[in-house]
Amino acid sequence: MDYRDSTEEAEYRATLRAWLTENVPAKHDDERTNAEMAAERLAWHRKLYEGGYIGQSWPVEWGGKGLSPTMDAILNEENGNADAPSLPAMVGYIGRALQMFGNDEQRARFIPPTLSGEIQWCQGFSEPGAGSDLASLTTKAVRDGDEYVISGHKMWTSAGQWADWCLVLARTDPDAPKHKGISAFLVPMDSAGLVLQPIVLANGDPETSEVFYDAVRVPASALVGEEGDGWKIAMTTVAYERGPSDVGAISTLNKQLASLERHAKATGATADPRVRLELARAYVRGEVVRLVALEQLSSRATGKLVGEEGSVAKILQTEASQELAHLALELHGADIVTGRAAEVVGQYFQTRPMSVYGGSAQIQRNIISSRILGMPRS
Ligand SMILES: Cc1cc2nc3c(=O)[nH]c(=O)nc-3n(C[C@H](O)[C@H](O)[C@H](O)COP(=O)(O)OP(=O)(O)OC[C@H]3O[C@@H](n4cnc5c(N)ncnc54)[C@H](O)[C@@H]3O)c2cc1C
Known about the structure:
Layout: H1 7-23, H2 34-50, H3 69-81, H4 89-101, H5 104-116, E1 121-124, E2 140-144, E3 147-154, E4 165-171, E5 182-188, E6 194-199, E7 208-219, E8 223-224, H6 230-242, H7 248-266, H8 273-301, H9 309-332, H10 335-338, H11 342-351, H12 361-372
Parallel strand pairs: 1-4
Antiparallel strand pairs: 2-3, 3-7, 4-5, 5-8, 6-7
Helix pairs in contact: 1-3, 3-7, 4-5, 4-6, 6-9, 7-8, 7-9, 8-9, 9-11, 9-12
Residues 122-126, 131-132, 156-158, 208, 353, 356-357, 359-360, 362-363, 366 line the site of flavin-adenine dinucleotide.
């Protein structure tokens, strides 16, 4: 593939860059609460939509522009370069699941407001006893006339407190083999019987939550696809979640690396050849992530569905981010405990759960070894 912009892409990039210069909100010096940051991300989502930049690779019939996924990658990259609030990630995977598995009524009802930011989503897959082994989930949905009654306990429902709707996996057939008895439902977060309890992470961020479903009633029309399709829908959703969409993360990594290099030069740390080597390694890791993401995006542009190769992008991106954050901690020395390097500590804590959410690093390696490399499972 050719990694350079085509003429059309270069023009698009220039127009977008100018738009971002005009529109990216000013940075706040004061510390923002989690709710303020969520509101800022939502306002940015809506602004991008009004500017015509959300849903570029989505079919025109659902409010998209029908362009190549490369345009989304350019948006992602330039958004990161411009230090703008992050892009609405769930549009890229829950939105895709709706597009691929929803019926016409569900698509018409949910996709346009999902693209525009009127509807915010969360993902209710994991449970206390079902994370890596998701197929062991025990939340159940029982048909009762024109409704399903959902009961169970979900863990790690990220952004649940800001979401309007949740894509929930529940067991509809307890007698079927465990992967086959699962179904997917669209559940309003303000349903009677649904109780959300935020989980505070190590960085003090209550971004994720546990959610209790106590006989939550949803209409039968909340079922996505057929009963028993839940596993297929979940695997497609996580493949898009792990996939190469986040090229913009590389811009963030590059900025963090540039700032670390400045710090290392200013403190004389670059006199140590090991530090120079580690900085060079961090740069190379970032470039590898960028090229792998671009390669996967270009194969997506040919119409290929996202699959196991998303696990490769996820592992590389996780390692690049975690190792850079670790190096930054090392180079800031005592400042990390005095509070003078609070941002570096914040970045470090932000990178830690990357090797868990969206499927743990060990599970990604299992996928790569068995499904890409064809190695035996035992
Ligand atoms: C910050 C954060 C946000 C999240 N957001 C969401 C969300 O929005 N929605 C959602 O549904 N879930 C979410 N998750 C859940 C996430 O997908 C799970 O935590 C993850 O899949 C791991 O499951 P678990 O926590 O149950 O750990 P376990 O499955 O119990 O795993 C524990 C350890 O054992 C290892 N392990 C387990 N099985 C194997 C195996 N077969 N081979 C090798 N090693 C193995 C794992 O790699 C891990 O290191 C989030 C998690 C975090 C931390």
